[in-house]
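Researcher: Checking consistency across runs. Here is Transcription factor again:
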Amino acid sequence: MSSLITEDEIRDESEIIWLEDVTRLDYVRQSLDRLPTRTGKPPYHRDGRMVGYALLGPRAKASRSSGTFRRRVFWLLPHDRDAAPEGLYAMGAPAEAVDPRTIAARTKGYKTERSEGGPPSTAMRELGITLPQ
């Protein structure tokens, strides 16, 4: 989950590769996957589709026990808002979802009003809390 990803875990990222135009996506899901290489397109074994992934720099160290590297992968499931705008996530977003406009190498990304599916709640407005647009 994105909330469990720390800046320390992604400090060796060198670049984010997007496989499609993410400017039209309100959110993407992100996870840290164990992969055999620092670079290259990783295999994808989830439902839905991979929309991007991180490349690691030469300083990234493989796990001593498994020999794998932890790299971020960005993905969407068939029931996510881009494919089902009136579905489960018409409002709100999955826990691991972040606005792709907030993602960069070594930056984990965060939720915005856009990724959450709409205007701020009444409680947020009353408290004066705003999320980035």
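Researcher: Does this match what you'd expect to see?
Model: One thing to look at in this run: Strands lie at 13-18, 28-35, 49-56, 69-76, 97-98.
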